[in-house]
Write a structure and sequence with these properties.
Shape: globular
Structural class: mainly alpha
Mean pLDDT: 90
Largest sheet: 4 strands, mixed
Number of domains: 3
Helix content: 55-70%
Distance between the termini: 51 Å
Number of strands: 6
Number of helices: 28
Amino acid sequence: MKNPDNSQTLSPWWRRALLIVMLIGFSILIYLTVNAYYSAPPIPDEVINDKGEVIFTGNDVLEGQEVFLKYGLMDNGTIWGHGAYLGPDFSAAFLHNLSVDASTAFANELFNKSLSELTTGEKLAVEAKATELLKDNRYDPSTGSLVFSDIEIQSFESQIVYWKTYFSLPENNAGLQANLISDPVELQKLTSFFAWTSWVSVAQRPDKPYSYTNNFPYDPTVGNRPTTDAILWSALSLIALLGGIAIVLFAFGRWDYLGWKKTNDPTLAQEPAVVVGESTPAQRYTIKYFLIVAFLLLAQVAAGALIAHYRADPKEFYGIDLSILLPSNITRTWHLQLAIFWIATSYVAGALFLAPILSGKDPKHQVIGINILFAALVLVVGGSLAGEWLGVNNLLGNLWFWLGNQGWEYLELGRIFQVLLTIGLLLWLFLLIRALRSASQKPERKEIVSLFIFAAIGIPLFYIPAMFFDSTTNFTVVDTWRFWIIHLWVEGFFELFATVMVAIIFFVLGIVSKKTAMRVMYLDAILYLAGGLVGTGHHWYWTGLANPTMAFGAVFSALEVVPLTLITLDAWDFIKLTRGTFEIVTKHKWTFYFLMAVGFWNFLGAGVFGFLINMPIISYFEVGTMLTPNHGHAALMGVFGMLSLALMVFALRQVLNDMQWKKVEKFIGISFWGLNIGLLLMTLVSLFPGGVLQLIDVINNGYWHARSQEFLGVGLIKSLEWIRIVPDLIFSIVGVFPLVIGVCMAYLYTRKIKTEKESIEPV
């Protein structure tokens, strides 16, 4: 076979294939998104009794949704399985309470007995009657009215008191402020919102034998069981997975140059484009971003530790009632936001650091732009975190949505700060492009720079959908756009951008040829986006969308495992490259260790743990259990977090001389092992077994029960929360603290370097 590296020019079909994949993927994704506006469950103009008297209105539902968001309740519990895992699934809890009220009424009506006195046959008859009542869809689209039965009305009124009790004490609700919501008007509106989400969960979609949420949550007492579509598309997704893996195996066997292969042709050997210990002014000014990264990680871990304690003991923190100042909804909001901030900051800084290596110099006044961007970063991070605390504490009045906490999980920061973040990302893109301008004029680097810029454009572009909805948009429509950010932005274009930066690092270090670097970029982009774009739909199985979403989501989500299989196939080549005899490789040892950790967690966290919960038939019982954060921690920290730290370590090593690095390196090495061992134990001894126990309880007792304090607050599941102290301490003390020390030392060294260099170099 002809050596594919005889030329450094790639076939144009790489570019064409990527464009075709993106065209097909976005066409399907946009179709599913537009369809969300038509298939979303209706919000009735009014809910009435059989006499036409109004019980509550559509405005009450939307204003109740605003109460839900304003107080950060999506960072306490879930709606249709999406949100936090501290409190209940509010839709499932309301539905179960309604089913108990309906069954109690029918037990008395049919048998003149209480529920506890019924025989098995009588209980089945009562459940059948309750199912018939609640499955009946009495919404009239011509009038916009939904008729509630007397049983549903009585349950609605009694549940206003139920939810008031829930919000009364921290031990009732996993650490919310005492009497968080006590205003009668707000409670009535919030309960109206819960009633609507419950009705959506059980009432049959017109002309379909299942509810608007495809019979989620699982609750056999009201006839909510898996649909045939969930079983069918789960089976077909396995076929898609096997087919995808077969294609990858065939491709790697047929074209043996795919992946991290170093050419044997000595004429194509690459000279390193960097000299360790030498840096430009812009690169040295970028190091302070990594200092912020380290402290944001430390703050995120502190918030996470407090959340874990709330799960184990919501009443107090060793005698102190922290729910007064730092309730669980605030700490979880900060935990999520800080994760996004520190990972994104590292990517932003890493890109700015790499650009001068490709160009060979800084553009004029680049340092000024880097400092302005840094100030914008501090403003957005500090302002949004403070606003979230003020908003949840109801101290911002009607400005809570704009300056406080929007309330949407992962997108909690106020709308003003979202706008500022987008502007900041555009400024970053501008700085990156101008830094790469001279490199783009070099024929041998033009294409690799073009790919770098193409991947970078996706970062600000695909954050914009975060502003396509507000606090009164239909919850189904919001969750559709929300996962454009959570999945498409983070797991799609952030992952693509990360792959590009890793390939560029290998290229500039002289480990692989330009052609190999570009081939890896194109191949990973094609494989990630082929499954990842439409695979976003696996988050939408139970959020009120029509069944085509399940079909596309299940099949393409299974294909997301294919590139992770590729990583496993290519792992040995990666290890051989990074264990070469090059001096530059030895100097960047810990960069490659963190990159190898990315490969491990990509397969375990994103691949194994992710696929475990993605199939519809598993997701139906699992979503919102501890198996979800098990996947989330392993994938977000293990993949995106470790890659962010790899970029950090690469930058620090490049700036520091050998003597300075020797002092910093020991802290980086300790941190590497502490972070990875702590994260592995966190998943294996707490999150994964806890999730399995919760999944079993869902199947045995219904989804509502597995999400209730009745299950989470006792027995083995509670013990697993306390056991988690051990991996959390390893992660924090052995992992995060040494990292912070090492980065602080490196930053102080760079300040000294800047003082020395800037006396002879312009900035």
